[in-house]
Amino acid sequence: MDKQLAIRRIRIAVSVFFGILTIAICTLWVRSYFAIDQFSGTSGHRFYHGGIHTGEIGLAAVVPTSPEKIAWSWYSEPVETRPTLYSQGVGYRVTRLPFGRIDRFANGWHVVFTLRSLFLSSCIILAAVWIRYTPRFSLRILLIATTLVAAVLGLSVWLAR
Questions:
Q1: pTM of this prediction?
Q2: 39: Cβ–Cβ under 8 A, 6 or more apart, which residues?
Q3: How far is the C-alpha of 86 from the C-alpha of 135, rounded, in Å?
Q4: Among 22, 17, 15, 16, residue whose Cα is nearest residue 129
Q5: Three-state SS string across the chain, please?
Q6: CA–CA separation, 46 vs 107, rounded Å?
Q7: pLDDT in tens, 54-106
Q8: Are 110 and 91 contacting, i.e. CB atoms less than 8 angstroms apart?
Q9: Domain spans of the chain, in order of start
Q10: Are strands 100-105 and 93-97 parallel, antiparallel or unpaired?
């Protein structure tokens, strides 16, 4: 009985964490269409720049051409002041992924995730915590699994168009 209570408390703690994370991601997702939030600075021998803009969150790391250190800073501005956060430069090699993209270039990399994919991942983990493992087969589990497979296949067909 004590073990079941501990597992239940862990499930509740994980649910609360991912519930708060889901709400935060949803808030950032909505905010990203009204404001650009960015941070940048130097750590070690790399310059890092990240930001949230129009439904995407990105992080870039480059080896700077000058040896000077740049202090860490965070800033926010309205979307109208800057049309695009991440511009495609010359020499980029873009790898498109279902949940974002990876840009590689001569002196660094840039990873971009869509906030939609982070939101869906957080919701899936939030729900998956409460799925109990039963060694017995039931019709309900079969219907849930079939529905999830159909949803994933439908989503992949919709994204392919």
A1: 0.66
A2: 48, 49, 50, 51, 72, 73, 74, 75
A3: 49
A4: 15
A5: CHHHHHHHHHHHHHHHHHHHHHHHHHHHHHHCCCEEEEEEEEECCEEEEEEEECCEEEEEEECCCCCCCCCCEEEEEEHHHCCCCCCCCCCCEEEEECCEEEEEECCEEEEEEEHHHHHHHHHHHHHHCCCCCCCCCCHHHHHHHHHHHHHHHHHHHHHHC
A6: 10
A7: 889 999 998 887 777 888 999 888 877 655 544 444 456 777 788 888 888 88
A8: no
A9: 35-113
A10: antiparallel
Q: Which two tokens stand for residue 81?
A: 């002041």
Give dist(CA 11, CA 5) in Å, integer: 10
- Find where tokens 């840039």 sit: 110
Q: Write the pLDDT tens digit of every residue in 141-154.
A: 889 999 999 999 99
Residue 107 tokens read as 């002196």
